[in-house]
Amino acid sequence: MATREKSDCPINLSLELIGDRWTLLIIRDMVFAGKKHFREFLQSDEGISSRTLAERLQTLQDEGILTRSDDPTHGLRTVYRLTEAGIDLLPVLATLGAWGSRHRKADERLARITDQLAAGGEAALEKMKAALRTEHSV
Amino acid sequence: MATREKSDCPINLSLELIGDRWTLLIIRDMVFAGKKHFREFLQSDEGISSRTLAERLQTLQDEGILTRSDDPTHGLRTVYRLTEAGIDLLPVLATLGAWGSRHRKADERLARITDQLAAGGEAALEKMKAALRTEHSV
DNA sequence: GTCAACAGTTCCAAATGTAAACTGTTTTGC
DNA sequence: GCAAAACAGTTTACATTTGGAACTGTTGAC
Questions:
Q1: Domains, chain B, ranges and CATH?
Q2: Distance, angstroms, CA A5 to C1' C1?
Q3: How far apart are the C-alpha atoms of A100 and A90, rounded to whole Å?
Q4: Which nucleotides in chain D lie less than 7 Å from some protein C-beta?
Q5: Which of A25, A47, B24, B96 is the most exposed place for a label (fewest CB within 10 A)?
């Protein structure tokens, strides 16, 4: 995504980075399923290809949304962690989930999660962000 | 976008429809700039191609996000209007804009708009939704 | 020492997106 | 009443992105 920015509109700038089919699904898996490893992302229901996954993880790393580091306890394993900018995408996931829950035929169990998050307002979001900071700190 | 759904996750269902570079920019133009005509969307800074625009408008219409009708006062003109599902995308635009405003180098004047909307909580959103309902009703 | 786990990479085909020119009406300005 | 501009797209040729499958090279488990 080395494309020159097409405008300085905040919505456009967000979309230039996360406006695609896969990026927010990766973030979703980190936020709601606690995934941290390449192989885990590969196993999601939507079936991202390893090629696309590798490219997205690299871009997200370049743009400061997540960090990549070696697992000290396991030489082969790589750990991906959300940065503060990545954790800050939680409200986007919440509103996106709430919309899908209301206007598409979504799984009820999953819908409850984002619905509660969106309905809980700032307080619910901050609580979950705090938990994510703990989980993704080194 | 006649793709079979890959999962029933509400976030995935939202992304399958609006997770791309252009769709939310069209909605943004309708919501914040009051655009309603093909030629107006074409003139945005980001420069969508007429082919992509036509395809997206068709999909959004098929999926019930907007409606298409002839302008009674002007035989050539077509009017696109947001449905309730389309208006309901406002919180997504607000959080997306707030994120871009905080984490990218966004235009300050534009950033203020989404920032206030996101900071104003449910009340600010509902107020703007009410205005959109009036503007996009027949 | 063998086998599975791990994070990718490589290659090719298919799908999608872009730019630019073009269509066929209708309305506007004179 | 006629020419030019406005309107919503379509078409075509090309470039870029994506998807699927097979493959690499290393490390850890048994």
A1: 10-136 (1.10.10.10)
A2: 54
A3: 15
A4: 6-12, 17-22, 25-29
A5: A47
The residue among A87, A48, A46 whose CA lies nearest residue B8 is: A46
Pairing of strands B78-82, A66-70: unpaired
Contact present, A72 and A3 (Cβ < 8 Å):
no
Chain B residues 60-119 within 7 Å (CB) of strand C: 74-76
The pLDDT tens digits of the residues spanning B52-68 come to: 999 999 999 999 999 99
Q: Which two tokens stand for residue B50?
A: 């007429």
Contacts of B123 in chain A (CB under 8 A): none
Give the mean pLDDT of chain A. Answer: 95
Interface test with B, best of A32, A52, A62, A95 (most B CBs within 10 A): A95
Portion 15-74 of A in contact with B at CB < 8 A: 15-17, 19-21, 24-25, 28, 44-47, 64
According to DSSP, the β-strands at B66-70 and B78-82 are antiparallel
**Under an 8 A CB cutoff, do B101 and A10 touch?**
yes
Given a cut of 70, whether residue A4 has pLDDT beyond it is no
